[in-house]
Amino acid sequence: MNARSITLVYYSPTGTTRRLLHAMANGLAPDSIEEIDLTPVASRQRDEIAVHGDMAIIGVPVYEERVPPVVEPLLPRLRGRGQPAVVVAVYGNVGPGIVLPQLSRACEVARLHVVAGATLIGEHSFCHDALGIARGRPDQADIAAATGFGTRVKQCLASITGLHAHQSPSLPGKLPAIARLLPRGIAKKFTASPRVDASSCTRCGACVVACPAGAIDPGSLVINEKTCTRCFACVRACKDEARSITLKHSWLVRRFLGAAIVTRREPRLFL
Ligand SMILES: Cc1cc2nc3c(=O)[nH]c(=O)nc-3n(C[C@H](O)[C@H](O)[C@H](O)COP(=O)(O)O)c2cc1C
Ligand code: SF4
Ligand code: SF4
């Protein structure tokens, strides 16, 4: 089998998932890449997410050990025609949770045949001056690893004559006890929505455009607390540093993140 065209399907508020999926696709060296970016609010209004390429790479960031809540209702809209697919969980060095099995199940329902899964690392959305977690990732080594994984998937595909006889890999996924106990959306209890510092704001509107939740009022620039997901895309988009990340109970956040702050985790491929 050979994948000459690849469809990338992703959600990526701060861009790490998008970069890693592109790196992986480069390793597969296709003739063409189709992108389905589910990050902007408008792009999530579609009834169907149809994969037109010879294969799909589907990736999301890990939010509280799972597929982000805004993406979950979109998964049943995925449509394939029996093509091979790679599922990717991008996480902020804490853990990939159950994202690979979640995406794998969605592929099965969508008529996509999973040939590989990968867990890759991106800078944690909460990373800032006072909390260095997976800072600067994906770095060169991460990008090289993702590209190498793409090449290995290409070799794997070349050895497959028909998908009907191919057994999808078993993809790991475990929901830690703490994630089972805590209510969804707990990130809001530990982070404040990023308010505007009026003295630095130039009213350029970049944060409004970057917000994947449509949570920022374009006039007042005030954030809707209910819809804000704490992805901090608005902070990264603001070149004037008029928005910033503030932790609530920062000692507790540090304690909870513990090893994830000091121990580097590495990308993994499951074939
Ligand atoms: C609400 C929220 C919850 C998160 N939960 C986790 C998690 O459970 N484990 C983890 O390692 N990273 C977690 N992260 C970090 C993201 O997975 C990580 O920063 C990822 O690279 C973001 O992808 P993006 O740049 O494509 O948006 C979380 C981020 C947010 C905003
Ligand atoms: S991106 Fe920054 S400077 Fe631009 S409107 Fe938003 S807060 Fe203001
Ligand atoms: S307002 Fe909230 S949801 Fe929107 S970009 Fe900022 S942190 Fe993300």
Q: Detail the poorly predicted runs.
A: none
Number of helices in the DSSP assignment: 9
Number of strands: 10
How far apart lie the N and C ends?
A: 15 Å
**Strand/helix succession:** EHEEEEEHEHHHEHHEHHE
CATH architecture of the largest domain: 3-Layer(aba) Sandwich
**Class computed from helices, strands and strand pairing:** alpha/beta
Largest sheet: 6 strands, mixed
Per CATH, what is the topology of the largest domain? Answer: Rossmann fold
Helix percentage range: 25-40%
Overall tally of structural domains:
2
The CATH superfamily label of the largest domain reads: Flavodoxin domain
What's the average pLDDT?
Answer: 96
Give the amount of beta strand, in percent.
15-25%
Question: Numbering strands along the chain, what is their spatial order in the largest sheet?
Answer: 2-1-4-6-7-10
Write the layout of secondary structure elements.
Layout (H helix, E strand, L loop, with lengths): L4 E6 L5 H13 L3 E6 L11 E2 L4 E7 L16 E2 L4 E8 L7 H12 L2 E9 L18 H19 L18 H5 L5 H4 E2 L13 H5 L22 H5 L8 E2 L2 H8 L1 H4 L5 E3 L1
Bound molecules: flavin mononucleotide and iron/sulfur cluster (2 copies).
